[in-house]
Design a protein that fits this description.
Layout lengths: L2 E5 L2 E3 L5 E8 L8 E6 L6 E6 L5 E3 L7 E6 L4 E6 L8 E7 L3 E2 L3 E5 L2
Parallel strand pairs: 2-11
Antiparallel strand pairs: 1-3, 3-8, 4-5, 4-9, 5-6, 7-8, 9-10, 9-11
Length: 112
C-alpha cells in the first residue's frame, strides 16, 4: 500500500531553519507530483510547495524565497528546506502524492 512518512519537524526559533523529508513507498515515485501542505490550528490546510515529475516547482506567496522543495527520485524522498522561519509558519506539515495520498504529518513550531 501507499505510505508517505514525514520527518524533520521540531521546535525552532524565529530565523532558524528546518528540513522536512517525506519518504514514499507503494507508488511510482518519479511519476508523481509531490506537494507539501500545512495546517495551523483553526485554519484550513494550505498548499506550501509543489514539485512535478518534471521538477517544476511552485510555492505559496507566504513562503516563496524562504522555502525550497526538491526531490530525490532514487531515494524516493521529497524535501522541504525551510529557512528564515517565522511564528506564522507554525503548523502541521503534510506530504501529498498525486493530490491523492497523504502522510501523517509532522509538527513544526516556531517560537521565541
Amino acid at each position: 500500500q501507499v505510505q508517505l512518512v514525514e520527518s524533520g519537524g521540531g521546535l525552532v526559533q524565529p530565523g532558524g531553519s528546518l528540513r522536512l523529508s517525506c519518504a514514499a513507498s507503494g507508488i511510482l515515485f518519479n511519476m508523481y507530483r509531490m506537494t507539501w501542505y500545512r495546517q495551523a490550528p483553526g485554519n484550513q490546510r494550505e498548499m506550501v510547495a509543489d514539485i512535478t515529475a518534471a521538477n517544476i516547482t511552485e510555492y505559496s506567496s507566504s513562503v516563496k524565497g524562504r522555502f525550497t522543495i526538491s526531490r530525490d527520485n532514487a531515494k524516493r524522498i521529497v524535501y522541504l528546506q525551510m529557512n528564515n522561519l517565522a511564528p506564522e509558519d507554525t503548523a502541521v506539515y503534510f506530504c501529498n502524492a498525486g493530490r491523492t495520498h497523504w502522510g501523517q504529518g509532522t509538527q513544526v513550531t516556531v517560537f521565541s
